[in-house]
Design goal:
Length: 328
């Protein structure tokens, strides 16, 4: 496999002597970086949107100062971006099952999206609901919203389209994925772009693949990386793994790659943990960091376990074995 964290003592304090401010950064932030105009009641200064280091009194001053500020702005903007990019997400992009409130497993086959409400339900809750309905001779309904489940794929697609019309980001992304499977890449791109604008993290991950392969859009490595980063920031472990792979193989930036792999491993991503292991063998990962990644990975996996989910996993394997036996 290719390699890719005073208590002030009580009592009176001497009254500080009055001195002129020595905080140069604070003082300069109150002046226009181009013309030196001070911020007063009738003049409001606006921060540079790229680095937030300087302020300007007008768009004209900002444009005139651009040539002098460009290098420092890009450097600080990159630093701010990395602060966001390499922050460990509290959970994956999937979040928690809305019924049992446990973290959803990152394996797609262990959860199901309901077409009626676009909620992602873990197998444990879904199977428990199916058993309850069978034992009580009840009609099949969504375990979350109790809407009758569709009988056919066509009915399910109709339910999804209703959610798309209601601007549901998950349903919009699912419709984009359906169009992608059908080979309609232009429509897939439109749906996925809309879903990404609505805040769906997985849509960014799918868009990165479209830009990588040039399906429905022209190949664009910068946009591919942008969407991978947006997905990774949102907690998508596969996107994080891909970023680590890109950093390792294309740029040789091993330290950044290892950071990506460790973050994804801490979310329970198996392949990323393997990459951390390879990094440890090659001397790019310290013993302490490797041990911490192992603990983080195990903690993330354990957090997704429950008796109901284990029961559902046993049932799934039994069904798969039965199908395989019939095909022999």
């Amino acid at each position: 496999m290719s390699l890719r964290a005073t208590i002030l003592e009580g009592g009176l304090r001497d009254k500080p002597a009055f001195t002129m401010s020595t905080n140069l950064e604070s003082d300069t932030m109150m002046l226009c970086a181009a013309c030196g105009t001070a911020q007063v009641d009738d003049i409001k200064l606006k921060k540079c949107n790229g680095c937030y280091l300087v302020k300007y009194c007008s768009v004209k001053c900002q444009k005139e100062h651009r040539s002098q500020h460009k290098r420092a702005c890009k450097k600080r903007a990159a630093e701010l971006r990395d602060e966001i990019l390499f922050k460990q997400p509290e959970r994956t992009h999937l979040g928690d099952c809305p019924i049992c409130c446990l973290p959803l497993p990152i394996e797609p086959r262990k959860a199901l999206m309901m077409a009626c409400c676009s909620k992602i339900i873990c197998d444990g809750c879904n199977v428990s609901n199916l058993i309850r309905e069978r034992e009580g001779c009840l009609g099949m309904k969504c375990p979350f919203c109790r809407h009758p489940t569709p009988d056919t794929e066509e009915e399910a697609d109709e339910e999804t389209l209703k959610r798309v019309e209601a601007k549901d980001p998950v349903a919009t992304r699912v419709m984009g994925h359906i169009r992608h499977v059908e080979g309609d890449y232009a429509s897939a791109f439109e749906y996925l772009s809309k879903a990404a604008r609505l805040g769906d993290v997985q849509a960014h991950y799918y868009l990165s693949a479209l830009y990588e392969k040039g399906k429905g859009v022209d190949k664009d490595e910068k946009k591919e990386i942008h969407h991978l980063e947006q997905a990774a920031i949102g907690g998508q472990p596969n996107a994080r793994y891909n970023l680590g792979y890109v950093e390792w193989n294309n740029g040789g930036r091993h330290e950044r790659a290892i950071q990506h792999f460790i973050i994804a491993a801490n979310m329970g991503h198996d392949d990323s943990l393997e990459m951390v292991k390879e990094g440890f063998k090659c001397g790019f990962v310290s013993k302490e960091d490797f041990a911490a990644a192992l603990r983080g990975h195990q903690a993330a996996v354990d957090a997704t376990k429950s008796p109901q989910r284990e029961k559902a996993e046993v049932l799934r394997k039994q069904i798969e074995s039965a199908k395989a036996a019939r095909q022999m």
